[in-house]
Amino acid sequence: MRFADIPGHDDVKQKLRRLADSDRIPHALLLEGPAGAAKFALARAFAQYVHCTSRVDGDSCGRCPSCRQHETFNHADTLYSFPVVKKGSGPTRSDDYLPEFREFISDSPWMDFERWLSLLDNINAQPNIYVDEANALISRLNFTATGSKYKIVLMWLPERLKEEAANKILKLVEEPYSDTLFVFTSDASRLILPTIYSRTQRIGVSRYSDEEIAGFLGDKFSLDPQAASDIARLAAGSITEAVRLISVNKDSELFLNMFMALMRTAYGRKVAELKNWASELAGLGRERMMKFYDYCARMIRENFILNLHIDELTYLNPAERQFSSRFSPFINERNVLRLFDVVNDAKADIAANANAKLVNFDVAIKVILLLK
């Protein structure tokens, strides 16, 4: 990951460059800000820049052996630490999930937490960084750097350190090895152990502007300016959410048809047709069903806002707007929250490998009751 691969954040990049160029790097650095602000990508780019042997124009070269090792996540002096779920009663360390994490940051460099949960195969899990991980870091950091001046620990979401693990990491931060750097990236820094937080040098990373998100989407996915602008507004400053919406957008016609079929058939109380609908939706597979229920949540929100006649806050494409102009009166303060619960619970059940046909049919029956 190079700085050039990351949109925006020129001020943060400049601060990181200065630290590396002056070789006055704090032993514990914290990048803090909202989810979807590309903090871990910045941390990766910083580590690659520090290790690069041929920096050029304020960025890593991308060609030297160190850069090539970073690109394949095989740099010997770069350690990744991140939240995981327990596997049985044995030790629980990040390295137990390293193949999954490499796949994750390759496919989702902007760190989509929901995507990580799906790779852990339990979207209802509460991943943490356990004391076994802290002990493993202590053991590995006892060895000197092998091919670089610094060993760098990239820790994603230190707010998920369990208490015993946090206290052991605190010891490393308080009494650091001379060749070791910690780079923490946090979505909720107020939850970090205060004694760790106070010993870091902090750099705030702000949310993206709608213009920056739209520009990124136009360049990366060749979207026309209007479509990019619409998705950027829905993403609310999160590049992660923008990419997720792009994925949903590819299926938008199918999802709209499935949503309209659900609402029309449920309103008509046509139970036999709803059984067929549930089976058809199950045929899409788990990942696309989860995206469909995300789409349903968005459409429920948009129709509720449309029903309140706050048109400037609605983001609907022409086909969605044509349907919603007639359907929105059926989404109101009486049922909107319960409809959200129905589709969000369905997504969680699908993620947990529940019987898809039963989950989908249960959704249909509940929608019948909520639209009456």
Could you explain the architecture of this structure?
Strand 3, helix 7 (163-174) and strand 4 form a beta-alpha-beta unit. A 5-stranded parallel beta sheet has the order 2-3-4-1-5, with helices on both faces. The chain has helices at residues 10-22, 39-51, 65-71, 98-107, 113-119, 131-141, 163-174, 194-197, 210-221, 225-235, 239-250, 252-267, 271-282, 286-307, 318-327, 336-351, 356-370, and strands spanning 28-32, 78-81, 151-156, 180-186, 201-204. It has 17 helices and 5 strands. Helix 10 (225-235) crosses helix 11 (239-250). The protein has 372 residues and is an alpha/beta fold.
What attributes characterize this protein structure?
single chain, 372 residues, 5 strands
Instruction: Give the spatial strand order of the biggest sheet.
Output: 2-3-4-1-5
Mean pLDDT, as a whole number?
92
Total beta strands: 5
Number of helices: 17
N-to-C CA distance: 53 Å
Structural class: alpha/beta
CA radius of gyration is 23 Å
Compressed to H and E, one letter per element, the order equals: HEHHEHHHEHEHEHHHHHHHHH
Helix proportion: 40-55%
Uncertain regions spanning at least 5 consecutive residues: none
For the sheet with most strands, the description reads: 5 strands, parallel
Q: Name the beta content range.
A: 5-15%
| CA-based shape | elongated
